[in-house]
């Protein structure tokens, strides 16, 4: 009874003393986009890797994108790639039910992806008649399953058996989709490559920006086993022109509006097997020659790829075998076990990318994909999350924490500027003292509450 009374008084004190902005920080309140892709096939992964719609925490995302639907290249209509899962087992329906937990959440359906290729989309986009059939089917499909929008993930116009005309036809397709979406107010987004050569071949940036609500930039897969060299999957910066900084700078210079750009962040890493072992555990693997194959994780089962959940569980299970390191040049963590190397992202590296994206006034960030975060909270003992209050989703929670802190600091900065302009220095000083006192009380009570 004493404990319950104490908690009640603590909560009462928190809501009495706390200013709205600090409370917003602790609830991950910010005005930025956090788009979370969900790989529908993750439900077929084994053991701890199996991810279901019920595993989603809808309060950690502003937008959720269900990947992927496909294209029927006979009728030129949208189709489910897994009707048993999506329709018979109610995955579409269960996705929409997430609105009950977060009414402000926007849920979109993505079409395409790497496995769908480019050729059929190239044929589709080349004909006004085929585009019309496709768009009509999309509008009907979104309405039937109550999605809030549509994400076009054509990988990639102009390549992978596409044709040069794809660049202009992609504009036509987006323009006509946007026009058809007006009545239902559906969101229209697209996932764009981070590769400069593909950007030039595939996208008329100023034109597609007119019709897209958000531009999701897939700022990962810069390197992998195909390079035959150990290099970061998603470096913040680099000397070879292949990095987050280089991609964002390139897109902005080509006319992409910052308020529509959403930076993609990977919740996975790339694996390598060294051609020759390192001379010591202190030697960096960066730039070392690797063989053509990497190694697999126990859940994703993809050569050269491991989800963060697989990586962190490996660190906990075989802690004595792995040596951890950090590459300052790219802001990337890595781990080494004999001739095995994993380049990945953790809360520290993601924080640097989020802060850089926000310095450019980007609309927000995109996650590929939340089913490879530590959604079960198996790795809480690593204590590397920026938010230690919860065990599950350490990466996604860290990203939201950084965004909330940036938003809060910007609020304070803007308010201080307003107060200075009004020459209210005395009032502002008093307000700052009160804010500090209130926040200190909040912090003490908050941590006491959870002890």
From TrEMBL:
One record GO biological process: chitin catabolic process
Molecular function as annotated in GO: chitin binding; chitinase activity
CDD domains listed in its UniProt record: GH18_chitolectin_chitotriosidase (cd02872)
Record carries keyword Hydrolase: yes
Keywords from the UniProt entry: Disulfide bond, Glycosidase, Hydrolase
Domain GH18: 32-406
Family recorded in the similarity comment: Belongs to the glycosyl hydrolase 18 family.
Protein's name in the database: Probable chitinase 2
